[in-house]
Specification:
mainly beta; 7% helix; 3 helices; 8-stranded antiparallel β-sheet
């Protein structure tokens, strides 16, 4: 049934707007006493969860919607998670104004085949940095090293995608083409609830997690801006004593054996990672991830 949830999403939301404190609807896995199960469910997010008996009958969430179980979850605040000679996936970077984050991976512009660095918009453009501003490697070196200059980015809804999908993503033009030498050919894939995933981030290094929602409805805010952030990927750590992400990990890519799934931009108060779908990122910024030239159009 979960494979048909996308087509029913709008109708399901319409049936939940009467719920007090309704914050959004996700599609993923059901939780029981804070533990993730393998049962698919509508994940109904509310600003504050109340005892069912305290709600009037019309204010209660139905136990099932369109034959899929519901799970009412209190929404957790998400914060933007930005805090060798050749930079590598997950390396610590900072923009020219000192905003920290992670190098996601290398990508190529579809129109020109130019190699670019991929990270988050709020990492590259934070504190009013602009196109052409420096991007620094700040990992193991005694002094920061210039590796790229800000090229393009987007923090908002991707035009032409239905349902609407948010991305926080940016690119940098490489200062030295040798940086991308040997960059792997990455496939991309759509995340699915229950996927086992990993990420390399500058703050937490390599972490393992499970996708618990593929349509997480969040609110992105950074400096003086805020945006609704629908259709995000929510990832929970598989280690009870370690978060999946924290401040400084923004820009890390989320992947599994099928390829790249998302670009991490935030972390919830519970230490869960929030990522934009990688295919939406590619569409928004005109990118490809395979290290092969684009075929000429005749």
């Amino acid at each position: 049934m979960i494979e048909h949830a996308d087509t029913l999403y709008g109708r399901a939301v319409d049936r939940l707007t009467h719920v007090p404190g309704f914050a959004g609807l996700g599609i993923g896995l059901r939780e029981t006493s804070g533990r993730i199960t393998t049962e698919p469910a509508w994940r109904v997010y509310v600003h504050r969860k109340k005892a069912r008996r305290s709600l009037a009958p019309r204010e209660r969430v139905a136990e099932r919607l369109f034959d899929l179980p519901t799970d009412v979850i209190e929404a957790a605040l998400t914060r933007c998670a930005s805090s060798s000679d050749v930079p590598f996936e997950g390396a610590a970077i900072a923009n020219d104004c000192g905003v920290p984050g992670s190098l996601g991976c290398m990508a190529w512009l579809r129109r020109t085949d130019e190699p670019v660095l991929l990270s988050c918009y709020h990492v590259l453009f934070g504190r009013r940095c602009r196109r052409g501003s420096a991007i620094w490697s700040v990992g193991f070196e005694a002094t920061p090293r210039l590796i790229a200059r800000v090229l393009s980015g987007k923090a908002g809804i991707v035009v032409g995608l239905d349902p609407p999908t948010f991305v926080d993503a940016g690119t940098g033009a490489l200062a030295d083409a040798s940086i991308c030498a040997g960059a792997p050919a990455d496939a991309t894939a759509h995340a699915a609830a229950g996927d086992s995933v990993t990420k390399h981030g500058a703050a937490t290094g390599l972490t393992h997690g499970v996708v618990i929602d593929i349509a997480y409805p969040d609110l992105w805010y950074w400096e003086y801006r805020s945006e609704n952030a629908p259709r995000q990927i929510l990832i929970r750590s598989t280690s009870w004593d370690r978060p999946f992400s924290r401040t400084g990990d923004s820009g890390a890519v989320v992947r599994n054996e099928r390829g790249l799934l998302g670009l991490l931009w935030g972390t919830t108060a519970r230490g869960e990672g929030v990522a934009s779908p990688i295919n939406a990122v590619a569409r928004a910024l005109g990118l490809r991830f395979a290290n092969t030239p684009t075929a000429a159009v005749s």
